[in-house]
Amino acid sequence: MILSKLLKGVFLILLIMISAAAACKKKAAAPDCGCGSPVIDTVTNIAGTLSYNSSLKGFTISTLGFSGYTDFVICNTDFAGFLPMEDSAKTNFIHVTFSGYQMNYCKLSSAGYIDQPYTIELTQLAYRSEERRVGKE
After folding, report:
1. Measured between alpha carbons, how far is 56 from 75 in angstroms, rounded to an integer?
2. How far apart are CA 122 and CA 102, in angstroms?
3. What is the pLDDT of residue 59?
4. What is the mean predicted confidence (pLDDT) over 25-52?
């Protein structure tokens, strides 16, 4: 009888400890950079050039602004507007206009970049004629 009460007590203590440990687990922190990180800006109807960037190991859209070129690494390459352009962008430069949610880029290799690239989740992507000025409209 005493052994039975002792086992019940040990079992109850173990159950409380396991419950407390499970409740204390921290939720995984949201990334502070890259795809899925907080949006730092929304870009709308920006002119740029879509291509595959081997240094950044992904598809990028390059824009020309007042301070030089800025690269946006595309997060959602499964975006419907991107899919028709994907094969051509592997070997060519495609003039596009785009909109999306801009996020910080996580890692920068020694690719020789002066300006930090960004990541972008596209919401719009369309072909544009080459005559249109590259950069913010």
Report:
1. 12
2. 9
3. 95
4. 87
**Whole-number Å distance between alpha carbons of 53 and 112:** 13
> Which helix (H) or strand (E) covers residue 101, if one does?
strand 94-104
Question: How far is it, in rounded angstroms, from Cα 133 to Cα 137?
Answer: 8
pLDDT for 137: 40
Per-residue burial over 82-103, b if 16 or more Cβ lie within 10 Å, else e, is beebeeebeeeebebbbbbbbb
- What's the one-letter identity of residue 26? K
Q: Name which residue leads in pLDDT, 117 or 101.
A: 101
For residue 30, give both structure tokens: 């949201």
Residues 125, 137: Cα–Cα separation, whole Å: 15
Q: Return d(Cα 73, Cα 50) in angstroms, integer.
A: 10
Pairing of strands 58-65, 94-104: unpaired
Torsion angle (degrees, nearest 10) of CA 125, 130, 131, 134: 60
Q: Are 122 and 99 in contact (CB under 8 A)?
A: yes
Give me the percent of the chain exceeding a pLDDT of 70. 66
